[in-house]
Amino acid sequence: xxxxxxxxxxxxxLGLIGSSLALIMRREGLCGHISGHAxxxxxxxxxxxxxxxxxxxxxxxxxxxDADLVIVCTPVGVSGAVAAEIxxxxxxGAIVSDVGSVKAAVIADMSPHIPDGVHLVPAHPIAGxxxxxxxxxxxxxxxxxxxxxxxxxxTDPDAVRRxxxxxRACGSDVEIMAPDHHDRVLAIxxxxxxxxxxNIVGTAADVEEVSEQEVxxxxxxxxxxFTRIAASDPTMWRDVFLHNKDAVxxxxxxxSEDLTALQxxxxxxxxxxxxxxxxxxRGIRRGIVEAGQETAAPDFGRGRMDHDGGDESG
Amino acid sequence: xxxxxxxxxxxxxLGLIGSSLALIMRREGLCGHISGHAxxxxxxxxxxxxxxxxxxxxxxxxxxxDADLVIVCTPVGVSGAVAAEIxxxxxxGAIVSDVGSVKAAVIADMSPHIPDGVHLVPAHPIAGxxxxxxxxxxxxxxxxxxxxxxxxxxTDPDAVRRxxxxxRACGSDVEIMAPDHHDRVLAIxxxxxxxxxxNIVGTAADVEEVSEQEVxxxxxxxxxxFTRIAASDPTMWRDVFLHNKDAVxxxxxxxSEDLTALQxxxxxxxxxxxxxxxxxxRGIRRGIVEAGQETAAPDFGRGRMDHDGGDESG
Lengths: 314, 314
Hints:
2 copies of one chain form a homodimer.
Chain A: E1 6-12, H1 16-28, E2 31-37, H2 41-49, E3 55-57, H3 60-64, E4 69-72, H4 79-86, E5 95-98, H5 104-110, E6 119-121, E7 123-125, E8 146-149, H6 157-169, E9 173-176, H7 179-206, H8 212-217, H9 223-229, H10 234-243, H11 245-267, H12 271-290
């Protein structure tokens, strides 16, 4: 029995997600031919060198020609432009999908360029690392992670089923969600965490009387966890914030409101308010571990350092 | 050559730090006898059961009697009360130390109770995990981590040298710092990161239209990193915030100011401001890895899950 789901898959964008998709498709034999395109010549050259895909093309349109599935793996800010570029080379019955962290804006940008008879099935795999580029990919990236599909009400159900089968074959669990709801869920579970991680790292670097060297030396007190997230791809994340503006601003408003309440509790010595919150948040982590979305090992099981790491000493 | 630095060491408090100290002292033979006290009967019973220390005492005063080094390993809020309790049983020439994440307030609380001829050498090992309690300890906790000593100008230099030798024998690097400076460095590298981690986890749990189950399911987008820190000991952290109020409020003011600037950039579509910050923060992480305070493995090398984890997909 062949695992093949599509004859030809085109990857537009060969960063962490695109390269991981290439590797898992190869490993599992999910398609007959993988074509790829990346905007940067350097990335295209690397992709050729490491044999990531079967053919590397200089343009997105060439890569997408004759593909049964085209996956746009670029920062969300250019997904509309990519759709415009490939529209004339899409074959009838083709499926266009993406991996963007924002769904409503991406759909608004891409759908005007999707020809009749071509199916747009937006997708978002909740997976990644702080690394980026074509060498960062690995076949296991999507294993046990969720992939959210946000088809429109009139999307061909068969196309949705094929994309769902594809992601399951990549090792993911699949959830169907409305685009707006996706954007609000991700705003709080991903976008705001990234924004505040970037922000605290910037704030720390700016404190005049604490040197950057001190910040780095004593990072094991908690700060270093944030720097990992704040090392994520700058272009990708700029685009996420600009394209999920409304949900991000709303969740940020809630975050700031809650933080102001904590600030007030600290100023007035209200230990009960602090204690109650700190007790409550412990349970959430347990839930995430139980949901299979996190290691149960203390300190993330950080185990590949010269010396074992630690945290939370204050 | 014996590794023994002290004849008798008393541990007041047998949580993560106290139990880790017991284990490393045993492994390295750093003292002849370890006495211990914990406020909770349950902890005292566990300590006996697992043979953590040589003798478990019902009161801090009994544990501290005849000790050459007394290490207060309690939440910082009770360090003054502990000092008052043990003052009459401290032998001349003894050293009293602690492991608190706040130094100025702890010194203010403890020093009035330190008898003449006894030396107070405050210490803070920058090490820990999100676990707590007497079973959470492990001998390697302090290995390669920094321990900051904040002696007062009139503290006996020989006592400082012995505490320094002790921490080096535990595997730590040692830095001497003024208490106020310590409190400001830790406010930005540890206390504020913890506060915002607790806060975002609370905010997420409260968003009405996103269920707690959804938050847990899709946590791999970034949120789960924060939940680890937000699973840290509630009592310890309440005390940290109440006792490092001024530095925490100042750093929190800076954080909020910077966050408001990002909020404004998002509202007005100012991608350059976002991009510039996101690019800059990448470098800080590299510095922490180079300083030996963090693993270089992507995604913390999270490797003990059933399936490998990921992050930063958005």
